[in-house]
Structure formats: C-alpha cells, structure tokens
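User: Can you model how adenosine monophosphate sits in this protein?
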Amino acid sequence: MSILVIAEHDNASLKAATLNTLAAAKAIGGDVHVLVAGSGCGAAAEAAAQADGVAKVLVADNAAYEYQLAENVAALVADLGKDYTHVLASATSNGKNIMPRAAALLDVQAISDIISVESSDTFKRPIYAGNVIATVQSSDAIKVITVRGTAFDAVAAEGGSAAVESIDNAQDAGVSSFVGEELAKSDRPELTAAKIVISGGRGMQNGENFEMLYKVADKLGAAVGASRAAVDAGFVPNDMQVGQTGKIVAPELYIAVGISGAIQHLAGMKDSKVIVAINKDEEAPIFSVADYGLVADLFEAVPELESSI
Amino acid sequence: MKILVAVKRVVDYNVKVRPKSDGTDVDIANAKMSINPFCEIAVEEAVRLKEKGVATEVVAVSLGTKQSQEQIRTAMALGADRGILVETDAELQPLAVAKCLNAIIAKESPDLVIMGKQSIDGDNNQTGQMLGALSNMPQGTFASEVAVEDGTVNVTREIDGGLQTVKLNLPAIVTTDLRLNEPRYASLPNIMKAKKKPLDTTTPDELGVDVAPRVQTLKVEPPAERSAGIKVADVAELVEKLKNEAKVI
Ligand SMILES: Cc1cc2nc3c(=O)[nH]c(=O)nc-3n(C[C@H](O)[C@H](O)[C@H](O)COP(=O)(O)OP(=O)(O)OC[C@H]3O[C@@H](n4cnc5c(N)ncnc54)[C@H](O)[C@@H]3O)c2cc1C
Ligand SMILES: Nc1ncnc2c1ncn2[C@@H]1O[C@H](COP(=O)(O)O)[C@@H](O)[C@H]1O
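Assistant: Here's the modeled complex, given as structure tokens:
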C-alpha cells in the first residue's frame, strides 16, 4: 500500500485537519507521502515532515498552486496519484473541491467523507444527513478519498523527520484565476478543532446578540458556530454554519442556543461528546440529542451562564 | 448563452431516512420525493440569468428512473425551457452521472452548467467537480454569487475560512451553495405550462456511457444512538453538571 495525503495548508502553516487525515492513512497502513502544493509553502512542508508517520513530503512550490485553484491542483494530484494505491485529503471545502476532480481525471469513483477504515478498500461514511451509515467497498485500483476529521484522532504534529523532496510539476490550466477573498478574522479557535463550541440559531434574533455568545466563548476558550437559519438571516458569516452542508464538529462540549435541532443541523454536531441545549420550547427536537437541556429564554440564560463560569 | 442545469430526484429534506432492518438498503419506498434543494437553487439561478437577458435558453437534465420526469417538470415550472431525461433504473454514482452529463454537453454545447453542490441523499459533493475534469471546464464550486461577464464568470465561493472569488473562462461549471438565491415557488399557470414544454428522453447506452458502479454498498446501519439526557432546572444546575458530572468546563 502507498498512500498520498494532500496537505491542507495556507502556505505558511499546516492545517490541523491534515493530522486527522494522516490518522486515516495510518489506519489503512502502508507508506505515507504528503503532497504540499502551494506557493512559498516551504514552512508548511517543513511542518508536514515533522508529523508522525510521514515517510516523505513532496513539495510542489509554484505560483499556479498559490490559491489552490482546483483546475491546477487536481491535475497535479491526478498526475502524482497514479503511482499510489490511495490518495487522501481532508473533507474540508478545499479537499471537496479538488479530490473529485482529481478522481475523475484518474477515472475512479471518489469516496467522500469517510468516518472509518474497515480495510484497505472498505470504508464507512454517513449518508442522508448522517441518519444512515453506509459501509462501502471500492473496486477501483486507486482509492480517492476525503476524510472527516472529527472521526479520526490526529497523529502527533511532531516527532517525525520525513525527507522533503521538491517536485517540478507545474500544472497551469490557464482557465481560472483568483480574484479575491474575504477571510473571517478571529482570535478564537477554529470551529472544527475547538474543544468547546457554542452555536446560535434563529432564536438569537440578530447579529449583535451573538456578542453574548462571544463573551461566553472567550471565557471558555470556545469557538462560535451557527445554524443555517442564523447564517441565511445574515446574523453571522457562512463559515460559521454547522451541519450537513456546513461544518462538521465533534467537540467535548457543544452548546446549542436558540437552535431547534433540524436533522441538517444535528448532522453537523451530534457526535459531540456532551451536548447542551438552551431553548424556550421544551418540544424542540434539539433536546432529543442533548445531555443537558435547559428550557429557558436565552436572553436570560446566556448572560447568567456567562457570569457563572 | 445556453445554460444546462442538472436536477436530481431525492427523498425530500424533511424526511428522516432510516436503514431497513436487514441492513441491505435504506427504507424509502413510500417517502416523499423532491428536487434536490441545491438543484432547485441551480434552476433558480439559471432562470434569473435568463430573465436578466444574460441567458437565452435553460435546459434541465436529470438522470434516473422515469419518475425523474417530475423533477424536470418542476424545473420547467420554475422557468427552464426544456428537459432531458437520461432514463435508467441502474444505481448511479457521481462518476457515471458526470460521464452522462459530459456526453450531453458534447451535444448541447452549453456556455454554463449549473448544478447543486451536493445531493442530500448520497451527500457526495462530487459530480460538478468530476464533470469539470471530464469536460475540461473550470469549476466554481459552493457558489454564493455568480456574475457573468464577457466570456467569463466570476464566482464567489463559500469556503471554510470565509469567501473566495474566482474568475473562470466560459464554458464553466458552477455548483450552488445555500446562499446563492432563494428559489421561487412555481405558480399554477407555470406548472400547467411546464407540462407542454419539450422533454426528450435518452439512455446511458445511447450516450455511450457505462454506468456500472465502482463502489459497492455492503451494508447500511443507523448511526450510534445517543443516550437520553436530562433537563436541568436552571443555569446554576447546568454549570454544576458541566463542572462536576461531565467535567467539560
Ligand atoms: C439542503 C439543506 C441543507 C441544510 N443544511 C443545514 C446545515 O448545514 N446546518 C443547519 O443548521 N441547517 C441546515 N439546513 C436548515 C435546517 O433545515 C433548519 O432550517 C435550520 O437548521 C433551522 O435553524 P434554527 O434552528 O436556528 O432555526 P429555527 O428552526 O427557527 O429554530 C429557532 C429556535 O430558537 C428557539 N428560540 C427562539 N427564541 C428563543 C429565546 N428567546 N430563547 C430560547 N430559545 C429561543 C425556538 O424555540 C426554536 O427552537 C439545511 C436545509 C436544507 C434544505
Ligand atoms: N442523477 C442525477 N441527475 C441529475 N443531476 C445529478 C444527479 N446526480 C447528481 N447530480 C447533480 O450533481 C449535484 C451534486 O451531486 P452529488 O455529487 O451526488 O452530491 C446535484 O446537486 C445535481 O446537480
């Protein structure tokens, strides 16, 4: 078995999700190489070389890869991927963007969002918003897979000493270009990596009221998430959405505030270790997954929570 | 400009799907079926581009059983001009769907293809990207804004860190995210009109595509159940439990 893991990074640093994907690679077993495709991405490559279980880091440092344009990166991944039995990436927005494109170039059926490795060709993955877990077996020669980070415990970020090899392989399709980005700036932990997440829903009524959640979050060192309704209503930006079609989180503690608990929301958080729900409607479905339910008006409960922790 | 939209027939998003007790398949025999919500957003976007005079024709394509005609009719009631059904009873996986769509692209030569980012049954999030590879078109996935300019399209994408805008040469593939638009409701007169719009049928065979699955589902099972929780009386009790019982704060 030889596995190529596509690093998730921002050129300067390796994203934590890569360490979870490396854990999935370890579960498959075999020689693990990491591809760092980027521009000026030496620091990310150095970090990848230190991760546990990595045999070799391939660095494709080229302007064509600076913004992870799918047309270019997928061509590179497909070109390198033909020499491996498995190609893995994190099921992040970037992994989801690139991997199916690479899979089609290799003429294989990709497998999205795996939550367990049963054997080198058999995996489990959630379907129907996580209401069903399917065990699937691939008959393709190369398995192209995205990995749900919350389902695999990260490998150690340090201790490894893999060789770093630069590869000269510039794939520039020339059909797409980067125009700009608006990235959320926050000092709080990343939603998918945080130990505690507090999320607000439509019950928050507006964006200003999220301030109450930020205060609690800052006391607990938590990340702040939201339901789709809160994002659609413009209370908070899209990158805060938790759920089937947003981010998947599984922290030690998830606190849902003014969220009803639609299946699409539950799909993104029901693997959290401890779930707290604060909702004024005692019939709200969120209580069916909550370890601790508090039937209360959030505008009273949340400030009280903040002052008592 | 011609726009192709891909619409999939799926179990309605309000239905909580469960596996059959023998674990062979999901139990959806009598479930309500609908157009995949992301595909509905794709149709709406295409129709708006037509209403703005940017597009001249909107063609809705679906692959699946004969019943998928219903979703094509829905798309036409929302404003698509005509439909194509790629009829098959076979299980379709994203690579096979993308190959069929690519064969249709070869015949129709659309300038823009708009599809959903994800089907809410299989939760694959693959087909658009695969079609991009097969057709050699650039892709703008998870779109929350689409602006067509001369020969290019600017797509603002919902990514993990926020928003990213890319410029793509046409023809291009766009996959929709939830914030792209709010689909309209089909009016009764438009539903009636849709019945008269042309709907062609073809098959994977006629398109020359082998749709045999590459991935086999060995079994399906319910996710781990959570044990029943408790209601706490007030914030003080909640904090006490979190500190001393759950030990998470
Ligand atoms: C294709 C598709 C994908 C989707 N993907 C996602 C997804 O990824 N994530 C997601 O979250 N949703 C998703 N949804 C939407 C989902 O179906 C629900 O509409 C959404 O989760 C509802 O958000 P909410 O719970 O905040 O709002 P609501 O359902 O309106 O619930 C608001 C809750 O707040 C409570 N409340 C109101 N005021 C107070 C108060 N003062 N104090 C205490 N409680 C109060 C109410 O009792 C209610 O339970 C998706 C839907 C579709 C169709
Ligand atoms: N059987 C199908 N018929 C038409 N379109 C489809 C079909 N399967 C997938 N698609 C399109 O591809 C998108 C993404 O689907 P998926 O890759 O399965 O998550 C959907 O939103 C549709 O636009």
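A couple of observations from the model: The longest strand of chain B covers residues 139-149. Helices of chain B lie at 37-51, 69-78, 94-108, 127-135, 188-194, 204-207, 235-245.
User: Helpful, thanks.
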